[in-house]
């Protein structure tokens, strides 16, 4: 059976479903260019999508891989995490072969984006599945005549069986800004990161691939172009403040985000930048 790409309705949103001959699957919504499901061959969902996520277009969808652009979190005057995650993207390319399926979604400036951020741009998100691997590549081009700067992230919600039993390896020795401790800069000194309380950290200039281990499965996480890693889990109290996350939702998710946030990316007229996050199911 060949790999396929088809348009589907997903909770009322127009989406694409990619399926490879080996049985890997992805669903990506055109609202926000948001990957909402990734199932590698073997049949286990690896992304967390909140059962209370809102799909009416009024807000970002809680889960999957929101695209944060042109602002990460509250690092500027724009809406939290920018406007890309709530914008309508369009399909730029679709390609599939025996072993892979690839789509590219695109977003350009419009009256609505220029009202918030007065810069001409074109952003593309490439989504590629091949074997047990998912590659997400964000490219941003400055199509105007003046320099601009931005911050960005692929805000990946990983599905975990029990977050307390998960171990994230690879961050040892890196500095991070700790949002749950008044933005203090700390150095990670443990061999593994265990999630045992609210966690909201921006690790800077991470050079190593990461490994998320659970009892019976692991996930390799790599980034190119994105220098930073954000690790976020809202834990018990913060979850209550999020109407689109169930009370026990925090237990089944861990955000490990590829980010360019510590230092903004600067783009001159005609220049472009790209960053990629790769997940490998092990
Ligand atoms: O609720 P939002 O806007 O999707 O943001 C979720 C979280 O996103 C993370 O990336 C931030 O580090 C957190 O501070 C934030 O709470």
TrEMBL record:
Domain of life per record: Bacteria
- Look up the EC number in the record and give it: 5.1.3.15
Cite a single GO BP annotation.
Answer: carbohydrate metabolic process
The residues responsible for catalysis, as annotated, are: 155, 257
UniProt-listed SUPFAM superfamilies = Galactose mutarotase-like (SSF74650)
Q: Which GO terms describe its cellular component?
A: cytoplasm
What GO terms are given for molecular function?
carbohydrate binding; glucose-6-phosphate 1-epimerase activity
Query: Which terms are listed as keywords in the entry?
Result: Isomerase
Give the catalysed reaction(s), semicolon-separated: alpha-D-glucose 6-phosphate = beta-D-glucose 6-phosphate
Provide the family line: Belongs to the glucose-6-phosphate 1-epimerase family.
Task: List the protein's name.
Answer: Putative glucose-6-phosphate 1-epimerase
């Amino acid at each position: 059976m060949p790999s396929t790409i088809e348009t589907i309705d997903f909770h009322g949103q127009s989406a694409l479903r990619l399926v490879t001959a080996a049985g890997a699957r992805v669903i990506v919504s055109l609202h926000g260019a948001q990957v909402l499901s990734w199932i590698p061959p073997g049949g286990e969902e690896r992304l967390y999508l909140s059962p209370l996520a809102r799909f009416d277009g009024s807000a970002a969808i809680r889960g999957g891989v929101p695209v944060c652009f042109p602002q990460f979190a509250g690092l500027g005057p724009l809406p939290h995490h920018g406007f890309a995650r709530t914008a309508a993207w369009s399909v730029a390319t679709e390609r599939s072969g025996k072993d892979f399926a690839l789509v590219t979604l695109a977003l350009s400036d419009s009256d609505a984006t220029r009202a918030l951020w007065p810069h001409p741009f074109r952003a593309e998100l490439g989504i590629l599945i091949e074997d047990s691997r998912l590659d997400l590549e964000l490219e941003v081009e400055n199509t105007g005549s003046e320099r601009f700067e931005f911050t960005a992230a692929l805000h990946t919600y990983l599905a975990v069986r029990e977050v307390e039993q998960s171990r994230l390896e690879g961050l040892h020795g890196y500095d991070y800004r700790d949002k749950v401790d008044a933005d203090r800069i700390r150095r990670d000194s443990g061999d593994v990161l265990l999630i045992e309380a609210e966690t909201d950290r921006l690790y800077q200039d991470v050079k190593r691939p990461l490994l998320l281990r659970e009892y019976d499965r692991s996930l390799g996480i790599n980034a190119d172009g994105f220098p930073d890693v954000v690790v976020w889990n809202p834990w018990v109290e913060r979850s209550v403040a999020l109407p689109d996350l169930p009370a026990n939702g925090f237990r089944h998710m861990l955000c490990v985000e590829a980010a360019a946030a510590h230092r903004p990316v600067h783009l001159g007229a005609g220049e472009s930048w790209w960053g990629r996050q790769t997940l490998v199911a092990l």
